[in-house]
Write a structure and sequence with these properties.
Blueprint (H helix, E strand, L loop, with lengths): L1 H25 L6 H28 L1 H26 L2 H24 L3 H12 L6 H29 L2 H39 L5 H11 L1 H28 L4 H17 L7 H8 L3 H14 L3 H6 L2 H27 L4 H19 L1 H16 L9 H13 L1
Helix pairs in contact: 1-6, 1-7, 1-9, 2-3, 2-6, 2-14, 2-15, 3-4, 3-5, 3-14, 5-16, 5-17, 6-7, 6-15, 7-8, 7-9, 7-11, 7-15, 7-16, 9-10, 11-12, 14-15
Length: 403
């Protein structure tokens, strides 16, 4: 059902975007289209370039990519916060508070997890090794398609934004919702496809054809990917918030500490019903996302893998890559708009950030999928000759850090 719902909304919103673009072109004499489209489309192009650069950087030097992302993301986020302060509107001022606070949180988080960088980058290096040559062509192609799709959608949103009527506000929200869901689905389809290929390699040493996996994923897994693209981010946000509250609360205040424990307990339970590791079983065993997530999480619990999974930095790395790219794109588009048409600057910077974040998450999806396939294959058969001592060494390092 979700598959057909996605196709239906995709068709409807695509028609809507064409209408908004045509209307924007016809009403060009009554607005300032150049002041909108130039910074927005420049930031979209910037998103595609950064996505290509980041995945290539990670491919060739995972260790330096890890360190650079964790240390530079707070800087770019802070710079975006300063830009929002300079724009000086009520909306930008509210956003700037969040951006600056988030940059401080990122800095503290990078310092906290820095002892795990070495082993996390080692797992990443092992996971992405021996990637089939065809993927080196498919991944840049996926980034390019998502970049063009983003340019199309931002052009439609531009047509609605310049009109500034109540109905057009509804059009913008519908467009942004569809745009976000579609790129999440694109990311998770890559996740399902690549994790399937990597799982088969690590589990049995088998090399499966990319064309066959893509065909099977589109035929059997599309519905699960569509619903998973809604469930997994929501549950991930809830769990991440609960863990952040637990980390901040510490043991200083008894009431706050008990609330944090309660939230953390609930979050740990619900994550079993929808998590990124479940996409491996969605692709390999054609399960639904809920069943695949439950089975995978139960397997992790059975072998005592939970602490290792919770300590994994791959998702944080990919998330911060998205935040860094989004901040850079917002700086490009927002600064340009601030110079040529200040009233557009807040909206342009926000849309630029969203585009940079989502396109980069698509670009980094193959990395997260490779690590997921590696972990799930290891959890199913830790004694396999396909594995070296990377994971046992990481577990020992975590025990030393926690001891």
């Amino acid at each position: 059902m979700f598959k057909y719902l996605f196709y239906a909304q995709f068709l409807v919103v695509t028609i809507l975007e064409f209408y908004l673009i045509v209307r924007g072109v016809l009403s060009a004499s009554q607005s300032h289209p150049k002041e909108w489209y130039t910074p927005v489309l420049s930031s979209v192009a910037c998103a595609g370039i950064i996505g290509l650069a980041l995945q290539a950087f990670t491919w060739f030097d995972p260790w330096r990519a890890f360190k650079a992302t964790f240390y530079l993301s707070p800087v770019f986020t802070c710079a975006y916060g300063v830009l929002l302060v300079c724009i000086d509107t009520p909306g930008s001022s509210a956003m700037s508070v969040f951006a600056l606070a988030f940059s401080v949180f990122q800095s503290l988080y990078a310092c906290w997890v820095s002892p795990r960088f070495h082993h996390a980058s080692r797992i990443l290096t092992v996971s992405i090794a021996d990637t089939p040559p065809k993927l080196k062509t498919v991944i840049p192609l996926s980034i390019s398609i998502c970049t063009l799709y983003s340019a199309f959608f931002m052009s439609g949103i531009g047509g609605a934004s310049m009109a500034r009527t109540k109905l057009n506000v509804l059009f913008i929200f519908l467009s942004l919702g569809s745009f976000t869901w579609t790129l999440h689905i694109a990311r998770n389809m890559i996740n399902v496809t690549i994790s399937h290929i990597k799982y088969m390699k690590f589990a049995s040493g088998a090399q499966v054809e990319l064309k066959t996996v893509v065909k099977n994923s589109a035929k059997y897994s599309m519905g699960s990917v569509c619903i998973g693209s809604i469930i997994v981010p929501v549950l991930g946000l809830i769990r991440g918030s609960a863990r952040a509250i637990s980390l901040v609360s510490g043991g200083v205040d008894e009431f706050l500490f008990s609330c944090a424990n309660c939230c953390s307990g609930v979050a740990d339970r619900i994550v079993g019903y929808g998590n990124r590791w479940g996409f491996v079983q969605v692709g390999v065993y054609k399960k639904g996302i809920v069943q695949g997530s439950m089975d995978t999480w139960e397997m992790f619990r059975r072998i005592g893998f939970e602490k290792l999974i919770n300590a994994d930095l791959t998702s944080s790395f990919c998330f911060l890559c998205g935040v860094s790219a989004g901040s850079i794109c917002a700086l490009v588009g927002g600064s340009w708009a601030l110079i040529i048409h200040k009233s557009y600057a807040t909206e342009v910077s926000l849309y630029a950030f969203l585009t940079g974040y989502l396109v980069t998450r698509v670009a980094m999806a193959w990395i997260q999928a490779s690590v997921a396939g590696y972990y799930v294959a290891y959890a199913e058969n830790p004694q396999s000759q396909q594995f070296d001592g990377t994971i046992p060494d990481y577990i020992q390092a975590l025990q030393r850090l926690q001891g």
